[in-house]
Write a structure and sequence with these properties.
Glutathione S-transferase Yfyf (Class Pi), Chain A, domain 2; 4-stranded mixed β-sheet; globular; EC 2.5.1.18; glutathione transferase; detoxification
């Protein structure tokens, strides 16, 4: 285990983006302090460490703050280079992994969030179809990136595994609340198997929230959102 008493992660347990930093550190076997943030009343340390976005996660290495989850993962991979690599070594494979990670954050994740806010069954079905279409594309990406191995990164969890796998808890909550299957045997059999392998990995196991606990948090979150934005 690497000696890293100066490593801290500012975060909140339900955040998929915070999970990315924690999984990357676990893969590198870096000791770190997890400082839980109350997002309703952000700490001075968070505001000082991330004055631009004022959000988690923040990795603090020594006295240096690093912000934005995918940038943090790349930083961890660069700094603790003696441990297994997270980003692919091949430039093309690295570019493809970054492309799909950007797709997840910029296009797929906003659609996923849209399931909870869609008004009416027809609108919800349209958003669900869009999300499932994304999963089908990610199924194809998995086949190409994994090259017959267990993870997007090959034999071990890599950059795209972390970028995508951090959402699995929220995917399960979305399935539970809406009575649907987003990852299933019929359309995405490889992703279904990958999801199980990812969640059982030692670097992930202690970080991935339990579905029931996350569902309870989601109910509270949605109640607050409805209170803040009452229907006209």
């Amino acid at each position: 285990m690497a000696e890293s008493s100066e490593v801290k992660v500012l975060g909140a347990w339900p955040s998929p983006f915070v999970m990315r930093a924690r999984i990357a550190l676990n893969i590198k076997q870096v000791n770190y302090a997890f400082l839980e943030e109350n997002l309703g009343e952000k700490s001075e340390l968070l505001l000082k460490s991330n004055p631009v976005h004022k959000k988690v996660p923040v990795l603090i290495h020594g006295d240096k703050p690093i912000c934005e989850s995918l940038i943090i993962v790349q930083y961890i991979d660069d700094v603790w280079s003696s441990a297994p690599s997270i980003l692919p070594s091949d430039p093309y494979d690295r570019a493809i992994a970054r492309f799909w990670a950007a797709y997840l954050d910029e296009k797929w994740y906003p659609s996923m969030k849209g399931i909870a806010t869609a008004q009416g069954e027809e609108a919800k079905k349209a958003v669900v179809d869009q999300v499932v279409e994304g999963f089908v594309m990610l199924e194809e990406a998995f086949v190409k990136c994994s090259k017959g191995k267990p993870f997007f990164g090959g034999d071990q969890i890599g950059y795209l595994d972390i970028a995508f796998g951090c959402f699995l808890g929220w995917i399960r909550v979305t399935e539970k609340f809406n009575g649907i299957k987003l990852i299933d045997q019929a359309k995405t059999p490889q992703l279904l198997k990958w999801a199980d392998r990812f969640c059982q990995h030692p670097a992930v196991n202690g970080v991935m929230p339990e579905t029931e606990k996350l569902a309870e948090f989601a109910k509270i979150l949605m109640a607050k959102m409805r209170a803040a934005n009452p229907p006209n």
